[in-house]
Amino acid sequence: MTVRMIDGKARPGSLPGTTTRCESGPGPVHRISCPCGCGMVATASHQVISGSVEGGNLTLSPSLHMTAPGACGWHGFLVDGVYRSVDEPMPSHSPEVIR
Predict the structure, then answer these.
(1) Spatial contact of 76 and 66, defined as CB atoms under 8 Å apart
(2) What is the C-alpha separation between 48 and 88, in angstroms, rounded?
(3) 61-89, pLDDT tens digit by residue?
(4) If you write DSSP's letter for every residue of 34-67 in order, what string do you get?
(5) What is the dihedral angle through the alpha carbons of 65, 45, 37, 10, rounded to the nearest 10 degrees?
(6) What is the rounded average pLDDT of the residues 6-10?
(7) Residue 34: which of 68, 80, 79 has the closest Cα?
(8) How far apart are CA 7 and CA 9, in angstroms?
(9) Edge-to-edge strands of the sheet including 75-79?
(10) Residues with Cβ < 8 Å from 93, sequence gap 6 or more?
(11) In DSSP terms, which residues pair with 42 in a beta bridge?
(12) Is the pTM of this model over 0.70?
């Protein structure tokens, strides 16, 4: 699933994979609507490896895992602007740091 960029913020009811960059805190923070489609929205302060939300090619590390109370448990990666479940094979050009 490809990153979707919207004006404003990812919020409950946003399309799956909607990702926004927040301007709060000392480091990068992203709001992500769960890629599985369950409607859960999570805040992730993961390291930006490359790309950006605006460019549609964001890569975050480590993996994303929806574990908040009531979450679906989706676990996967955001690499080059594409969400991939841990059950999907990673592209061979993926950064070694997130394997």
Answers:
(1) no
(2) 21
(3) 999 999 888 888 999 999 998 899 998 76
(4) -TTSS--EEEE-PEEEE--TTTT--EEES-EE--
(5) 170
(6) 51
(7) 68
(8) 7
(9) 64-65, 75-79, 82-85
(10) none
(11) 32
(12) yes
Residues 6+ apart with CB under 8 A from 94: 77, 79
List pLDDT tens digits, range 13-28.
678 888 888 876 677 7
* Residue written as token pair 């960059």: 21
List the domain boundaries for the chain: 19-98
Rounded to whole angstroms, the Cα distance separating 36 from 34 reads 5
CB 84: neighbour CB atoms within 10 A?
Answer: 18
- Region of 81 please: left (phi>0), alpha (psi -120 to 50) or beta: left
Distance from C-alpha of 42 to C-alpha of 76, rounded to nearest angstrom: 14
